[in-house]
Write a structure and sequence with these properties.
Elements lengths: L6 E3 L1 H8 L4 E4 L2 H6 L4 H16 L2 E8 L2 E4 L3 H9 L4 E3 L4 H6 L4 E3 L1 H10 L4 E3 L10 H4 L4 H6 L5 E4 L8 H10 L4 E4 L18 E3 L2 H13 L6 E4 L10 H17 L7 H12 L3 H27 L1
Parallel strand pairs: 1-4, 2-3, 2-7, 5-6, 7-8, 8-11, 9-10, 9-11
Antiparallel strand pairs: 3-4, 3-6
The chain binds pseudouridine-5'-monophosphate and manganese (II) ion.
């Protein structure tokens, strides 16, 4: 199926959309810029299998040779997991990468924008981007937040990434009108950490309840989406006091090396993984898998009532 936007759908996703079955969108920045090989490839493959196992259809989104793919093939995902020339793509990069006929790995912002154009209602990621520490000076606020305020989609994550200023991120989410839902928790999870001292807006324990909130957003034409924060399983949760030093020293190194803009988040994730000898990478993999499961359940419930 090819529309005027020159999107290319995988057979599996095309069929699912035609048959009105639940679809979960997946990003590719986490593959190309968020995890090393081969963990990135294994995680991306496992996440897709889990979504199928749960009864939904995965649509891994990216741009290949300028063509937007809604549902990438195994080979394409493998290529993204190894190549070092795949551009990290947010809203502003999409038309450029398309025109240049190059390859682009979409962030949460880029993915939800494209997923919405393909009529997909749910997306799964690891940790949403947010307001960086010292953003008062750097202005570094992830485009993920603004995009989500403007896109009718539910993003399932393990909370904002621990590297961020969580308090400022919550303020920004409030300003932008994005509901912050805790799944089975009153306390906001923050990526590597099962919980923080911050409260979520509301706790839900059933995917069907979250689907109802989504439906209400639609019926009210609110135009924005919602953030569902699914805590990392206890077993893989890292106490914030144990990684705060690694985070701070990584931020310090980034500053010394003048790393900023879209390079900052990938740099920090890699640095923290190296300092913690892979402990945070293991957590990142497990929380992603956990989010794949929940996102499928929400997509299935929403599909029943939409
Ligand atoms: N979740 C992860 N790993 C990642 C990301 C999310 O577990 O690498 C990516 C997503 O693509 C998200 C991006 O949109 O990090 C945020 O980048 P930035 O801070 O530059 O907006
Ligand atoms: Mn940024």
């Amino acid at each position: 199926m090819m529309n005027k936007l020159s999107f290319e759908y995988s057979k599996e996703v095309e069929k699912a959309i035609k048959e009105k079955r639940p679809v979960v969108a997946l990003e590719t920045t986490i593959i190309s810029h968020g995890m090393p090989f081969p963990e990135n490839l294994n995680t991306a493959t496992n996440v897709e299998s889990i979504i199928r196992e749960e009864g939904a259809v995965p649509a891994t989104i990216g741009i290949i040779n300028g063509l937007v793919k809604i549902g990438m093939s195994k080979r394409e995902i493998e290529m993204f997991s190894k190549a070092d020339d795949v551009v990290k793509v947010s809203r502003r990069d999409i038309p450029i990468v398309m025109a240049n006929k190059s390859n682009g790995a979409t962030t949460v912002a880029g993915t939800i924008l494209l997923a919405k154009l393909a009529n997909i209602d749910v997306m799964a990621t690891g940790g949403i981007g947010g307001v960086h520490r010292e953003a008062q000076n750097t202005f570094d606020i992830s485009a993920d937040l603004q995009e989500l305020s403007n896109t009718e989609i539910t993003v399932v994550c393990a909370g904002p990434k621990s590297i961020l200023d969580i308090s400022l991120t919550l303020e920004y989410l409030e300003t932008m009108g994005i509901p912050v839902i805790g799944y089975n928790t009153d306390k906001l999870p923050t990526f590597y950490c099962h919980e923080s001292r911050f409260d979520v807006d509301f706790k839900y324990t059933k995917p069907s309840e979250i689907a109802q909130v989504m439906l209400n957003q639609r019926n009210l034409s609110l135009k924005g989406g919602m953030l569902v924060c699914n805590p990392i399983p206890y077993k893989y949760s890292i106490d914030s006091s144990l990684i705060e030093n690694s985070i701070n020293s990584s931020i310090k190194t980034a500053k010394e090396k003048n790393i900023k803009g879209k390079d900052l988040t990938p740099f920090l994730l890699e640095k923290i993984t190296s300092i913690t000898k892979g402990k945070t990478l293991k957590s990142n993999i497990e929380l992603m898998i956990n989010n794949a499961r929940l996102s499928s359940k929400i997509a299935i419930e929403f599909n029943k009532i939409r």
